[in-house]
Each structure stands twice: as structure tokens, then as C-alpha cells.
Amino acid sequence: MDAIIKPIRSGKPADKSEIPASDYMASAIDPGIVRPSRAEAEAAAKTLLAYIGENTNREGLLDTPRRMVEAYDELFQGYAQCPAEILDRTFGETAGYDDFVLMRDISFHSHCEHHVMPFYGKAHIAYAPVDRVVGLSKLARLVDAFAHRLQTQEHLTAQVAGAINAILKPRGVAVVMEAEHTCMSVRGIAKKGALTLTSRFTGIFQDNPEEQARFLNMVRGV
Ligand SMILES: Nc1nc2c(ncn2[C@@H]2O[C@H](COP(=O)(O)OP(=O)(O)OP(=O)(O)O)[C@@H](O)[C@H]2O)c(=O)[nH]1
Ligand SMILES: [Zn+2]
Hints:
By secondary structure, this protein is of the alpha+beta class. It has eight helices and seven strands.
């Protein structure tokens, strides 16, 4: 996190915090597509194994197409999840708590939509609640719901911030994500350890450089 040091603001940028309601009000399974059956998906997995030159009839690979499809079911379960439902339950007894709430170091893994290869790292999320707070685990669940879809890190960051903004209507949201993309660490340019940092600020975190700096310092643990 050493790369994040200074708040970045001069003048007021346009508010780009909104994301389409379809991103958070329902599952993300596209109603316009015909989903193949499980058997068709397993046949496709078998084709990929044959494509790399494998004998798909050898003992060690007999169950692999099934396992590949089951792994996809798990890794991409976010399509069936509704972010608005995750943030549905809030608590009002906060004894007048009026600062922002920060959860840092939320580990996540996702898959890039270009290569369908994992990228993984940490998310840091703060929001400034108005009267009611959300259960802490729900912030991590929200990250997972969006991360368990094909993503770019920028889109993932914007969706997490946008959903919190739209559903909780806080005074502001700050999201920073840092991740290593295996599509550029184990293939292609092969730069192991390179970290990508993305951020999205709304409300007080966007408008007030001091609040943004306080968030960034707390993320860095200073
Ligand atoms: N902006 C952004 N780019 C990503 C993300 N994940 C992967 N990429 C990039 O997507 C790009 C796809 O580029 P292409 O030139 O179409 O694909 P490629 O030939 O496989 O690219 P190389 O990785 O350079 O070999 C690559 O530069 C990846 O590094 C992401 O989350 N955000
Ligand atoms: Zn990629």
C-alpha cells in the first residue's frame, strides 16, 4: 500500500458514482442468453482438454470436465447474487456514531474478463453512514458477489462503491482495491508481483481532501 500516499483532489470532479440499477438490484444472469446445459458445459471442458493435447479418456482426467464445471459454478456464483439483498439489513442503534466505518484488507479473488484468469488481492472499503449501519460481513459479501463474476478491476471497484452508494445512501464511500493479475504475472508479460491499484471515492471522500487523506492513512495503518 505504499503507493497510496497523497489525496488527489484539485477542484470538484464530476460525480461518476452512479452505476446502473441493473448492476445491484437483481442477479446478473443475462436473461437474453440461452444457457447451455451442464452436460454441454462438461463437453466444452472436455474439448478444451483435448485442445491442449490431452487424452481425455485417461483415468486421471475422467472426472476433470465435471470438476471444471463445478469449479466454474463456485468461482462465478456471483452472477446469481443480488447485491441489494446483501445490503438489505441495517442496524439503527449506533449511539450517535457519526464517523466513517472502514474495513480494510478484505481479501478477494476474481477473474479478468479478457483471459478468464484469476486476479486477487485486497479491498479496502469505507462508508460514512447516515443513522443506520450495515453488518460488517455484508461489505465482504458484497465484494465477493461482484468479484465472483468476470471483471476488470476498475469495473469491480466502481460496482462495489456504486452499490454501497445507491443502496445505503451514505454521506460518502471510499473503495481502494489492490490486486495481482495472473494474466500478466504467469503469462504474457510475466511481471510477477506487479500490483494494480484502483480507487473510487464519492461524497465526503470525493469532496473533502482531509477525509480522503484520513481514509488513505487508515488503510496504510498510520
Ligand atoms: N484495464 C484492465 N486491463 C486488464 C485487466 N485484466 C486484464 N487486463 C488487460 O487486458 C489486456 C488485454 O489485451 P489484449 O492485447 O487484447 O490481449 P493479450 O494479447 O492477451 O495481451 P497481453 O496480456 O499483453 O499479452 C491486457 O493488457 C491485460 O493486462 C483489468 O482488470 N483492467
Ligand atoms: Zn487477463
